[in-house]
Amino acid sequence: MKRSSHLTFIGMIFVWFLTIFYLLSTMNEYKTSGNQTDQDRRLSQVLSSIRDVQHQIEEIRNVSELLREIKKLQGKLLLGSRFHQKQTRPHVEIGIKGPSLRHEEARRHVETNVDEFWRYMRSKLYKLKDSVKKEDIELLVNAMLKDGQALHRSAVNDLYDLKNVDDIDKWRLMESMELGEIIQKRLNSLQHPKNCHNTKLFVCEIKNNCGFGCELHHVVYCLITGYANNRTVVIPATPWQYAPSGWETVFQPIGAPCLQEKGILPERDPHNILRPDVSSLIGVENDMRINADYLPLAVPDDIADRLLRFHGDPPAWWIGQFVKYLFKFQPSTQKAIEEGIKKLNWTTPIAGIHVRRTDKVNHEAGKHEVEEYMVYVEEWYDLLKKRQPVLKKRVFLASDDPDVIQEIQRKYPDYDFISDQDVSRSANPQNRYQLTSLYGVLQDIILLSRCNYLVCTFSSQICRLAYELMQTHNGDASSNVQSLDDMFYFGGQTEHIMDVREPHDPKEQNEIRLDWNDSVAIAGNHWNGYSKGRNRRTGETGLFLAYKVKDKLKRAKMPLYNVTDSVV
């Protein structure tokens, strides 16, 4: 590693003690000036902040312990001979075995803790700065924010080095490509049966009358349901709001034309999904979610262990495979997208932001100013400059509001923003359901997925599609995105469960208690060091420190399919 993780730890300790020293040094001034009630209130605020920061020292100790554990585990990595070279894949030297699952889990815990620590500290310091207006305190907080950000940047770069040591990044990419190829073969086998007359069908009607991201995720739902129940999915050749001639005007057929060959009327009772005598079933999405353990955020049991080893967000990778399968375009669609990308002069490295405005704001999500996006873009470029030369800070902007580009260029003149204004104008609600508008949406999703870093809102289906597709291009891109609102989710998913890693004693009225062996149904991450959820043991809903829980991957038994590739 280029830097010492222990020096980073010591630096964090130093900042903590600096915080205590300066805050304590201000207390005497409060005692000798101003109204007594005001003094008490301010003193209480300072003491509360000290207690909160003191609590975080325990988190830093946990980070240090995990770093030491990872160092030990690194020394135990052995060379194997599992992988072979293929011309269509990135070059990886024969013999790279990759880290153990325990190693990767420990590394991811460190990544999470470092980020949650910085979110917590930044949030608390801004709150302290706003509540205590004394000038020297404000100067102190600004200095601490600057130094704290530098320490966070150093720790993140240390973790980046650790993540990519000994060509493990190439191993992750190889694993993702190999396992992804197996899933694509399975889908192709399911969707192209040898004999349609002996095939059970799942008919996917696109009648949601919602935006493109919503409708594509509906087709993903259909494919996952078909995969889990060994039913070939078919899309009827009916008019679609984006294309009057239907789905196949834009996309290639998702499989063999079995519905046309069988010529039978599908049934609509969702409870017949497992009945072998029901040969054709229409997917009624809301009803089909009854006891559907296979729906996201579940992944197939037979790939779960291998997937966990190389990827930090297995459900997103799994869903991304279905998005990849669907993103096969007709020649006219492919040509329109390629021409649109060509005129943008696309190069990397590049960050991407998806700014959602127009009719979506205040109905499906809140409005976020461009400054909120650029905070994370600036942090990412500061990190990147520590790893490699950055000649130009490039940002791809996708938005349904063409006015955003002028605003962001005016506010951030040192960045090179690229954006297709024709796409932004076509995304206007009046033009949204034209074919040219759909081409623009597809272009945006593809380009956002190719960005090295993405800032968007997971409340947006387009943002989630880009993140899902991003996973199919990379080994592990789970940390290459920052949402400004929701955590990643799939519409209609089963509960997102996390296990408690460390007990939490509530300090505020809106916090809940967590004990060992508890599990939490997550409602969201507030991106300030806290998450919200429901303790499944006590039924209480409230806040807790986000680093105290970890994801619990849901596994579901699904068919293996008749393909020769092994996933173990």
TrEMBL record:
<dbReference type="GO" id="GO:0016758">
    <property type="term" value="F:hexosyltransferase activity"/>
</dbReference>
<feature type="region of interest" description="Important for donor substrate binding">
    <location>
        <begin position="356"/>
        <end position="357"/>
    </location>
</feature>
<keyword id="KW-1133">Transmembrane helix</keyword>
<dbReference type="Pfam" id="PF19745">
    <property type="entry name" value="FUT8_N_cat"/>
</dbReference>
<keyword id="KW-0808">Transferase</keyword>
<dbReference type="InterPro" id="IPR045573">
    <property type="entry name" value="Fut8_N_cat"/>
</dbReference>
<feature type="transmembrane region" description="Helical">
    <location>
        <begin position="7"/>
        <end position="25"/>
    </location>
</feature>
<keyword id="KW-0472">Membrane</keyword>
<protein>
    <recommendedName>
        <fullName>GT23 domain-containing protein</fullName>
    </recommendedName>
</protein>
<comment type="similarity">
    <text>Belongs to the glycosyltransferase 23 family.</text>
</comment>
<dbReference type="InterPro" id="IPR035653">
    <property type="entry name" value="Fut8_SH3"/>
</dbReference>
<feature type="domain" description="GT23">
    <location>
        <begin position="198"/>
        <end position="484"/>
    </location>
</feature>
<dbReference type="InterPro" id="IPR027350">
    <property type="entry name" value="GT23_dom"/>
</dbReference>
<keyword id="KW-0812">Transmembrane</keyword>
<keyword id="KW-0328">Glycosyltransferase</keyword>
